[in-house]
C-alpha cells in the first residue's frame, strides 16, 4: 500500500540540497529550544549557553521541517501559489526555522537578521519573556492558524481554499489532532470544494506515533485499515513511511509530485473538460519517527520514536554534564559548518530549493489576508427597510428582512466571490432563504430530484457541524474575505473554544504592525431562548454572549437589535467592520417595528438611548423609575409594562431605555464602547430604581454595571434556566420577565409606591395566576397578551 521508497525524479544534487535544508531547519529548531548563546557552536557548549527554562516541542519539528523542505521544492519547480496550515500543536520551532531560512522572517522582523547575530536573536526569543510562543502563532510569518489548540487545521485549510481558485493549501494534520471531533468532521470538507471556483487542499496526515504520553489511534491502525478509512472519506492516500533520510526524501518528493499532478488533472477535468464528477482529491500519509534525528536514548531510556521525544528530550542540560554532552553531539550531528558560512548565513545549497518573493510560504499574501481584503459593496439600507409610521403599528420577521439584504450582498459579490454565509442546516429555518435567489448551497455530492437549492458553485454553506462552519469561516476571513455565521443561539456554544482562539488571534495581531486588518467574524444568533416553541428546554441557552464578553474588550462587540430596521443597521455596521468578533442576537418570529430607518440608525450609533415616546417623563423632573431593555422579547415586555403603568399609575414618571450595544453598559476605561460615568448617569440616573429586562442571564448585566452609582438600585430580569416546550408568553412568565412581573417590580422598588399601589400589584399577580390556568386549558396565550399592541 505504501508508495515505494525508490527513485523519484531527483538528481543527487537535488537530494543533497533538500537534505541540507532539512538539516539546517532541524538545527535551528533544536537551537531555539535550548540555546541563548553560542548559536553556531564556535566553542564547546557550557551551561551558561543554555536557557534557564527549557520550553518547546521537539517531537513534531523534524516532520514539519521535512514537509516545509519539500513544499519549497514543488512551489519553486511548479511556480505554485501555495499556503500551508500547520496543525500539530507546538510546531513553532520548525516553522520559525524555515521562515528564517527563506528570509521572510527577516522581512517581517528586520532585527532577526539571516546571519549569526540574527540566529542568536532567533534562538533567544523563542519561548522567552518578551519573545514569541512555542506554537505557530500570529507572530509567525505565513501562518493563518493558531497552533495552541488542536482540531481546526483542516477546516481552516478548506476555508482558505474556498473561492481561491489558483491556491493550493497544504495542511499538516498531526495524528494527535486527528483524534479530535472537529478534525474528524473536517475530512468531509471535500464534499463542499468546487474544483472550478475553489482552490485545492492537500492534507498531509503526519503519523509519528504518539501524543504527549500515549500512542495515537491512527498511527496504530494497520496501513490497510487506515487506507480504507481515508478512501471512505473520499481521498486517494499516498503513503510514505520510513526512517532513512535519503529514501524518505525520494519517496516524499514522488508523493508530492503525484499529488500535485492529480490536483492539476482534477482542475483541468472540471474547468476545461466540464466534468461534474466529484474529484477524489489526493492526500499524503507520512509516517516518520517522533523526534526523528534527535537523541536515541537518554538516561538509559529510549527517546527517538517514542512519546519521550514530544517536548524537551534532554531536560537537565544545565545541571547534568551528560545531558550537555548529548545536546552538543545532537547539534553537531547536523554538521552546521556545512550549512552556514563564516558569518552564519545559510549556504547556497541550503537555499537552492527555496522559492522567491511572495511564493515563499512565509511571505504568501493569503497568509496575511488583510492585504487582499476589499470592502464589501453594501447597498443603501433604504431599499430593504420596513416603513414605520408609528411605533408598534406593524410586525415583521427581522431575520427575513435581513435575508433580503444578504441576498443583495450575495448578488453584488457574485463575480468577485468573497462573501459566504455559513450555518448548520438552518438558513431557511432562520428566515434567510432569500439568499437562494442569488446563490445556492455548496454541494459536491449526489443530488436527488427532491433536493432544493444545491449548487456546485454555491456560496451558502450548510453542514451539521458548528465546528466546520466556524473553521471554514475563520479560514475564509483570514485569507481576506467576508462572511456571516448564522446559528441557533443555544448551539453556538459548541464553538466556544474556537471563538476564544480567534479572539486571541485578533488581539495579538493588533500588536503586530505587518498584520493587516481582516474582516470581522460575524455571528447572527437567532431561534433564540424566548421562542423555542416546539424545541423546548434543550434549545434554550443565551450564554454565548457571557462567554464572548469575558474576552479581550478591544476585539468583541455584542448587539441586541430590537426590531427589523435596527437589525439592518447593525448588519451594515458589522459587515463593514474589521478585526472584531461581532455577536448579533435577533429573532426570526414576527416582531413589532419600533423605529424607522433613520431613527434606527441614530439609535444604533448611540448604542443605547431613551425612547421618549414610550415613557411618561414630565418636564425637567427626573423619572421615578427607569425601565431598561436589551433584546427583542424583553423590549416588547418592557413596553407592555410601560403601557400598563401609564394606565394604572398615570402619575408615575417612567423612563424607557433600550440598549442595542451591550458594551455601552461598561465603563469607558474598560471597553472602547463603554460610557463615561456622567453619560451613563444621565441616562439611568444615579439613584432611581432601574428595572432591566434582559435577553440572557441577568447576572451579566450586574457584572457589566457593577461600578455604576445606580447599581444598588439595579434589578435585572432575564433567563434563569427555567424552560420547557410551552407558549411564548409562558416562557417569560416562567423566568419572571413578563410585563406583569415588571410592573410588580416597579411597585416594589419605587419608594412609597408599595402601599398606595397594592391593589394594582394584586391585579398583576392575578393575571399571572390566570395565565397559568389558561395555557393549560387552551394551549395558547391569554387573548390580552396574544392580541396586544402598542397604543402609546
Describe this structure in words.
This protein has 792 residues and is an alpha/beta fold. The protein has 3 domains: 12-364, Thiamin diphosphate (ThDP)-binding fold, Pyr/PP domains (Rossmann fold); 381-591, Thiamin diphosphate (ThDP)-binding fold, Pyr/PP domains (Rossmann fold); 607-786, Rossmann fold, CATH 3.40.50. Helices cover 37% and strands 13% of the residues. Helix 2 runs parallel beside helix 3. One of its GO terms (biological process) is carbohydrate metabolic process. Its cofactor is thiamine diphosphate. Residues 10-371 form the Xylulose 5-phosphate/Fructose 6-phosphate phosphoketolase N-terminal domain. Its EC number is 4.1.2.-.
Q: Record the strand order, biggest sheet.
A: 12-9-13-14-16-15
Structural category: alpha/beta
CATH domain class name of the largest domain: Alpha Beta
CATH fold-level topology of the largest domain: Rossmann fold
Organism: Streptacidiphilus pinicola
GO molecular function: aldehyde-lyase activity; magnesium ion binding
Family: Belongs to the XFP family.
Domain Xylulose 5-phosphate/Fructose 6-phosphate phosphoketolase C-terminal: 588-790
Amino acid at each position: 500500500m505504501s508508495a515505494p521508497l525508490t527513485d523519484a525524479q531527483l538528481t543527487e544534487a537535488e537530494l543533497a540540497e533538500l537534505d541540507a535544508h532539512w538539516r539546517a531547519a532541524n538545527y535551528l529548531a533544536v537551537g531555539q529550544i535550548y540555546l541563548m548563546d553560542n548559536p553556531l557552536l564556535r566553542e564547546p557548549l557550557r551551561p551558561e549557553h543554555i536557557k534557564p527554562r527549557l520550553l518547546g516541542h521537539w517531537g513534531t519539528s523534524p516532520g514539519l521541517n521535512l514537509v516545509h523542505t519539500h513544499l519549497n521544492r514543488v512551489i519553486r519547480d511548479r511556480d505554485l501559489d501555495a499556503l500551508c496550515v500547520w496543525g500539530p500543536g507546538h510546531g513553532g520551532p520548525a516553522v520559525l526555522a524555515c521562515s528564517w531560512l527563506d528570509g521572510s522572517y527577516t522581512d517581517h522582523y528586520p532585527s532577526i537578521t539571516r546571519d549569526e547575530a540574527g540566529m542568536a536573536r532567533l534562538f533567544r526569543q523563542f519561548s522567552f519573556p518578551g519573545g514569541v510562543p512555542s506554537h505557530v502563532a500570529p507572530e509567525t510569518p505565513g501562518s493563518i492558524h493558531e497552533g495552541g489548540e488542536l482540531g481546526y487545521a483542516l477546516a481552516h485549510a478548506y476555508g482558505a481554499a474556498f473561492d481561491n481558485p489558483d491556491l493550493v493549501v497544504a495542511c499538516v494534520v498531526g495524528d494527535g489532532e486527528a483524534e479530535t471531533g472537529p478534525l474528524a468532521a473536517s475530512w468531509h470538507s471535500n464534499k463542499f470544494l468546487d474544483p472550478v471556483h475553489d482552490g485545492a487542499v492537500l492534507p498531509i496526515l503526519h503519523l509519528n506515533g504518539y501524543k504527549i504520553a500515549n500512542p495515537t489511534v491512527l498511527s496504530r491502525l494497520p496501513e490497510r485499515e487506515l487506507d480504507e478509512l481515508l478512501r471512505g472519506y473520499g481521498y486517494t492516500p499516498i503513503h510514505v513511511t520510513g526512517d532513512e533520510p535519503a529514501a524518505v526524501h525520494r519517496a516524499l518528493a514522488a508523493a508530492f509530485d503525484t499529488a500535485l499532478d492529480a490536483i492539476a488533472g482534477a482542475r483541468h477535468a472540471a474547468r476545461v473538460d466540464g466534468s461534474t464528477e466529484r474529484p477524489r482529491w489526493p492526500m499524503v500519509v507520512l509516517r516518520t519517527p517522533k523526534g526523528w534525528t534527535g537523541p536515541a536514548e537518554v538516561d538509559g531510556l529510549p527517546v527517538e520514536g517514542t512519546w519521550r521525544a514530544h517536548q524537551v528530550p534532554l531536560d537537565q542540560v544545565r545541571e547534568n554534564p551528560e545531558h550537555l554532552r548529548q545536546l552538543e553531539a545532537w547539534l553537531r550531528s547536523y554538521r552546521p559548518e556545512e550549512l552556514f558560512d563564516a558569518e552564519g548565513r545559510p549556504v547556497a545549497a541550503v537555499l537552492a530549493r527555496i522559492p522567491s518573493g511572495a511564493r515563499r510560504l512565509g511571505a504568501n499574501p493569503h497568509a496575511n489576508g488583510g492585504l487582499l481584503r476589499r470592502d464589501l459593496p453594501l447597498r443603501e439600507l433604504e431599499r430593504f427597510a420596513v416603513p414605520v409610521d408609528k411605533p408598534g403599528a406593524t410586525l415583521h420577521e427581522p431575520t427575513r428582512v435581513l435575508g433580503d439584504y444578504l441576498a443583495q450582498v450575495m448578488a453584488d459579490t457574485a463575480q468577485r466571490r468573497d462573501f459566504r454565509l455559513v450555518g448548520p442546516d438552518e438558513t431557511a429555518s432562520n428566515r434567510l432563504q432569500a439568499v437562494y435567489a442569488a446563490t445556492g448551497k455548496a454541494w459536491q455530492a449526489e443530488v436527488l430530484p427532491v433536493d432544493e437549492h444545491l449548487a456546485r458553485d454555491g456560496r451558502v454553506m450548510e453542514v451539521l457541524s458548528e465546528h466546520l462552519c466556524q473553521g471554514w469561516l475563520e479560514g475564509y476571513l483570514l485569507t481576506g474575505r467576508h462572511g456571516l455565521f448564522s446559528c441557533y443561539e443555544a448551539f453556538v456554544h459548541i464553538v466556544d473554544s474556537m471563538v476564544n482562539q480567534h479572539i486571541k488571534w485578533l488581539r495579538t495581531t493588533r500588536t503586530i504592525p505587518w498584520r493587516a486588518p481582516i474582516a470581522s467574524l460575524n455571528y447572527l444568533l437567532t431561534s433564540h431562548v424566548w421562542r423555542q416553541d416546539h424545541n423546548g428546554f434543550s434549545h434554550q441557552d443565551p450564554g454565548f454572549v457571557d462567554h464572548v464578553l469575558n474576552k479581550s474588550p478591544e476585539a468583541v462587540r455584542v448587539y441586541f437589535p430590537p426590531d427589523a430596521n435596527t437589525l439592518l443597521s447593525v448588519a451594515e455596521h458589522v459587515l463593514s467592520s474589521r478585526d472584531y468578533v461581532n455577536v448579533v442576537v435577533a429573532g426570526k418570529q414576527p416582531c413589532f417595528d419600533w423605529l424607522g430607518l433613520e431613527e434606527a440608525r441614530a439609535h444604533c450609533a448611540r448604542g443605547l438611548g431613551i425612547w421618549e415616546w414610550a415613557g411618561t417623563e414630565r418636564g425637567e423632573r427626573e423619572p421615578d423609575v427607569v425601565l431598561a431593555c436589551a433584546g427583542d422579547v424583553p423590549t416588547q415586555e418592557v413596553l407592555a409594562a410601560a403601557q400598563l403603568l401609564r394606565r394604572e399609575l398615570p402619575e408615575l414618571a417612567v423612563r424607557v431605555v433600550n440598549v442595542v450595544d451591550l458594551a455601552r453598559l461598561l465603563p469607558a476605561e474598560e471597553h472602547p464602547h463603554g460610557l463615561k460615568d456622567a453619560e451613563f448617569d444621565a441616562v439611568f440616573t444615579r439613584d432611581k430604581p432601574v428595572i432591566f429586562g434582559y435577553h440572557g442571564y441577568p447576572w451579566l448585566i450586574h457584572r457589566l454595571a457593577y461600578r455604576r452609582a445606580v447599581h444598588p438600585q439595579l434589578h435585572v430580569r432575564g433567563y434563569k434556566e427555567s424552560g420547557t416546550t410551552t407558549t411564548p408568553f409562558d416562557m417569560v412568565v416562567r423566568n419572571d420577565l413578563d410585563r406583569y412581573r415588571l410592573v410588580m417590580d416597579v411597585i416594589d422598588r419605587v419608594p412609597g409606591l408599595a402601599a398606595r399601589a397594592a391593589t394594582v400589584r394584586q391585579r398583576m399577580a392575578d393575571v399571572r395566576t390566570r395565565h397559568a390556568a389558561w395555557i393549560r386549558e387552551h394551549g395558547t396565550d391569554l387573548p390580552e397578551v396574544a392580541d396586544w399592541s402598542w397604543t402609546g
